Structure formats: structure tokens, C-alpha cells
Amino acid sequence: MDKGREIKPHIGVFGRCNVGKSSLINALSGQNVAIVSDIAGTTTDSVKKTMEIKGIGAAVLIDTAGIDDTSLLGEQRVQRAMETFAQIDLAVLVIAENEFDKPEEDIIKQCLRYAIPYIVVSNKADCTPLSAKLEMEIKKTYSHSVLSVSVTNREDIANLTQKIRETIPPTSYQKKGILEGIIKPQNIVILVTPIDSSAPEGRMILPQVQLIRDVLDNDAINIVVKETELRYTLSSVYSKPALVITDSQAFEFVSGIVPNDIPLTSFSIVLAHLKGCFDDYIVGTPHIDKLKDGDRVLMLESCSHQPTCEDIGRVKLPAWIRKYTGKRLEFEAVAGLSRIERPITDYAMIIQCGGCMITHRQLKSRLLPALENHIPVSNYGLAIAYLNGIFNRATAIFRK
Questions:
Q1: What whole-number distance in Å separates Cα of residue 229 and Cα of residue 356?
Q2: pLDDT reading at 88 higher than 60
Q3: SS3 for 259?
């Protein structure tokens, strides 16, 4: 699947030890990708497998550890399984032998908390059929039907695949154009891409590639320049550009060159609008003015990379915020989807990167604990725009 268009939807498979989660994944994918054993706790950590689902495309199946694992490391394994909810678009809850109690209820609570649709599957139907009483209780309590499945029955697996296709949110695989409704065919779009030591050698970063492709998909015209060539470019193009998109860290320089009648925003802000939580960013960003001495700010990165002296999230942006506020602030960074070790309430503010490497659902789930605790959230691009006094200008095209 083309990363320039979007990340694959994720499907988490949950259940007790030995209910047949791994066997179910093997049957769905048509491959022996998950280890199968009668020994409880065989799956000790989440295992991912990409498979093609007709009508959806490539999707990632996540096999999790048993939610009733009582082994020496069981508590940690169950915790890791629960953390999977921050990554998925759909949950498949697997039960067997008519067992349904607190472990299953906890899974459904997580689904409701993260607003994740779910499917309840009664596995091993060839050995122990689903009882009519349990089926009725689940339907009455959760308004959910239960799908009986045997992994050896191809028709059952086909029915489960169809159920997945019907239940997974279309937004997880039907991709909206990044600039859809913002630019028109034959519009000129200038993309300003500074090249410094943090830029990857010999290539462009993913948000830049995504925007180049999206401009072309809208039958518009790309002009890609470094910030040092922007003034010359603006004076040379025959038609006035419909939009200028810059790397956020060049906002101060670029905004001084681009006339006010030309819309201006950044790669990070465009992705923030696409990925979700944009309204939360709009409300949360001005909290920068309220930061106090000793406040701790969490910088969330969606990818893992080796930091440099010009790293935007770990070096430049923290320095700019300290200078702007004049406060003694502490900054911490967490990369990828790694666990946030501190309690979320230890932070006065959360600032998220553009999120080019994670899904819409993953980004929203990542920020959910902060939003639940009324902690202000912002985005790299929006924070930089605010610091440079062009917050309203940089967001105007999305706030009409």
C-alpha cells in the first residue's frame, strides 16, 4: 500500500488464553503467521500480520496476548494488549467454550472508551457450540450479535471476513484527499522545503512527498523550492499562487515574503487538519501563553528517528517556546507509539507532530488520555505559527 496515500487500517484480536486467537488469524490470512499451541500464554506479545481484505485493501491484524494471562509476566502482557487499543480501527473479541465474564467486559469497555467498533466471535464452534442463553445475554447487554466460527470451516471464515468488511469504519481505508476542497485544477501551489542537517540525505520527508502527490492528484501545479529561492519564485511565476505550504520551522522567514493575499500554511498544519483533533489543537494552542515556571511539556513524535542538533521537536521548538514564554520549562519527547511512562496528568501541555507515520485513529487514541484529563493539546505547526504571530493566517483556509 502506498505510504504517500495513507497508513493501513489496524484490526486487534483479543481474548483469553487458548480461545484460538492465533488460529483465527492464521485462517483469516491464509498463512501460519501466528504460533499456535495448547500451552496457555503462547502469544507473549502483540504479533502483526498484513493481509489483503477484498473491498478494504491491505490491513494489519494484531494478535495479542491472552487477557487472562496469570503467568509471571502476565500482568505486563495484558497491559501491552490493552495498549493496542491506541493503534486499532476495529476490535475482534474472541470467546470460546461459552466463557464470558470480566476479561471480556474489560475489552468492551476499552472499545467504548476509544469509540472503536468491535465484533464478538464465538470460536471453536465445532467443539462447543455457543449457548443460546449467552448469545441472548450479550445481545441484550451490548446490542451485539455473536458470530459462531470454526477455523476449519471456510464458510465461517468467509462470513467473518464479510463481518469485518461491514464493521470497520470506511474512514480507515477510504482516504480523503489532503487538499480536497482547498485547491482547484490548474492552481499553482508553492511548497517551501528547507534543507538542513535534520533533512534526510538524498530524499524528501514523507509529508512533502504526500503533498506533492496530492497537488498532482488535484490536477494542480507544484512548484517546490527552498526558502532561499522563494522570493525569486514569487516574482517569476506568471499567475498568483493559490496556496503556499512551508515547513513550519521556516514560518517566520516565509511569512515575511509571501503577500497577505496569498494563503499560507504548513505541512504539519495540513496533516493536522487531515488526521483529526484539529479543533482541539485550535483551542489548546493558545495555552502556550499560560505556561508557568516548572511546567512539563510532552512532545509526541509519530516516527522514530535519530535526533540532531537541529531536531524540530526536541531542540528547536522547545527553545522557541522557552524564549517566547520566558519560563523555565521542562520538555520530554516520546517517539513512535511508545508508552508514555509518566502519568499524563504530570504534563501541563501536549504538542503532537504532524502524524504522517500513524493513522487517524492512532493519533486520536494517542491524545485521548490528555483530552480526557482536560490537558491542552497542540501540534508542531500550529505551535510554531502561534509563536510567530501568524496563527490565524496559517489556519484560515481550514476555518472558513
A1: 26
A2: yes
A3: coil
Residues 135, 146: contact at Cβ < 8 Å? Answer: yes
Which triple of cell numbers denotes residue 260?
497577505
8 CB-near residues (< 8 Å, 6+ apart): 1, 50, 57, 58, 59, 60, 173, 359
Q: Does domain 10-172 have CATH number 3.30.390.30?
A: no
Are β-strands 47-53 and 57-63 bridged in parallel, bridged antiparallel, or unpaired?
Answer: antiparallel
**Nine cell digits for residue 77:** 502482557
The answer, yes or no, to whether residue 42 has pLDDT greater than 50, is no
Residue 134 CA: distances (Å) to CA of 44, 68, 96, 99? 29, 19, 11, 9
CATH topology of domain 279-392: Rossmann fold (3.40.50)
Please provide residue 210's backbone torsions phi and psi, each rounded to the nearest 5 degrees. -60, -45
Q: What is the pLDDT of residues 66-75, one digit of tens each?
A: 888 766 666 7
- pLDDT, position 308: 52
Handedness of CA 239, 245, 247, 250 (dihedral sign): positive
Task: Tell me if the pTM is above 0.85.
Answer: no
Q: What is the mean pLDDT of the chain?
A: 88
Q: In one letter, which amino acid is 7? A: I
Residue 110 CB: number of other CB atoms within 10 A? Answer: 21
| pLDDT-based confidence at residue 14 (cuts at 50, 70, 90) | very high
Cell 515556571, residue located:
293
**Rounded mean pLDDT, 375-393:** 96
**CATH number among 3.30.830.10, 3.40.50.11420, 3.50.50.60, 3.60.15.10, domain 188-270:** 3.40.50.11420
**Main-chain dihedrals φ then ψ at residue 13, nearest 5 degrees:** -110, 120
